[in-house]
Amino acid sequence: MDKRRFLMAGGALLAGAAAGLAGCGESEPRSNGATAPAGTVEKPNLKLGFIKLTDMAPLAIAKEKGFFLEEGLNVALEPQANWKVLLDGVIGGQLDAAHMLAGQPIAATIGLGTKADLIAPLSLDLNGNAITVSNRIWAQIAPTLPKGADGKPLHPISAAVLMPVVERFRSEGRPLKFGMVFPVSTHNYELRYWLAAGGIHPGFYLPRDVAGTTGADIQLSVTPPPQMPATLEAGTIEGYSVGEPWNQAAVKKKIGVPLIADHDIWPRNPEKVLGMTRAFAETYPATTTALIRALIKAQQWLDADQGANRPEAVQILARSNYVGADADVIAASMTGRFTYAPGDVRPAPEFNIFFGSFAGYPFASDAVWQLTQMRRWGQIAEDRPDAWYLETAQAVYRADLYLAAARALVAEGVIPAESVPETDGFKEVQTGFIDGVAYDGRAPNAYLAKFAIGLKQGQRVAASGVSPA
């Protein structure tokens, strides 16, 4: 304990010195001129929440490699039972911040579900999800899949292969059931996107249908990530969309087969963010900067030298106080490859991106995409002008706070200058989606108009169907 207190004290002094230097940084500020707040951290003891998924890695690495201590922070990491418990913990102040779904701060801010003023000053990672089906479903669709010269299925696999299964279940008077982790999760929107691209309607949300099953060809329900494999094995669901290691856990247990990874649905999609209340960031600005700085360092460590540190990260995440899955299960997706089935291991160098491709920068266009999907499936019931999407996204995804921390790290030589984007927060038009539809974050209503399935500007949904607003 004496050594620990010494390290903490030293870390606090270093953080104070670094923050003070940051205030005297570049004489000519870049872009919006964001600078780190000077002074020592106001709240050195923090409690952060997380869900047992491999993409919580930046938090675990920041703690285990001493990056939190370097910034003067003594951080307790506490696993949460599910995303609702985690969200309530941040809103209620039991947690200072958390590993949060990319859509959660946005949804809370606009009052979708729980109403709260949340922000996301850091994106934790890109990609990292997959969609898995049970062996029962796999046995029905595998014979129909196109095969390569090696006899293995060609990827990516379209959701259209499930249409005969949907019809078979319907003829038997029961719905085909899939699980996802939370109504405003990227997992939900990716699963819905993939299904709709294959001609399968995933259903609309209504005030009296919070499960989003109105007009659905397939029934989606919420299951906490660590419970996905057991729920699949029990036959309660026949497939799911989840982050790792819970797709690989199904492969290891030989109870399911991943059909598609999310980088084949939307390449380099945002997955998790650092979420906190706006009040926390305003009350503890230096603490917020220190927290972001530590996590950026951890992200850089995770992607350094083309993933050279990933094996060590796997061993850390395998500990029971973090993800608590077998190391080989975590490694099956986190070390540059992805296992679809025993003997079917494919290169997946971008399955988890933590630092490369500006993974940490909270792009407003990523937040706009989440909002378009909320509107597409009826969670946002009324039309909104393009300006509302853009303003909401920029108010929640706080690039200014990220830049304050990142530019200070650049000035100190900790991260390279080219790792921080020069941008207005909107990516150029994005392509590579499973359905071939291009996405321009500056034109959300025009984007929604491109889809055959889903709400568009001028439409609303009721139990009787879709009608003009």
Automatic annotation (TrEMBL):
Keyword Transmembrane in record: no
Gene Ontology CC terms: endomembrane system
Signal peptide: 1-22
GO molecular function: ATP binding
Cross-referenced SUPFAM superfamilies: Periplasmic binding protein-like II
Compartment(s) where it occurs, according to its Swiss-Prot or TrEMBL record: Endomembrane system
Keywords on record: ATP-binding, Cell inner membrane, Cell membrane, Membrane, Nucleotide-binding, Signal, Transport
Major site of localization recorded for this protein: membrane
Pfam family, one: NMT1_2
Family: Belongs to the CmpA/NrtA family.
Name of this protein: Bicarbonate transport ATP-binding protein CmpC
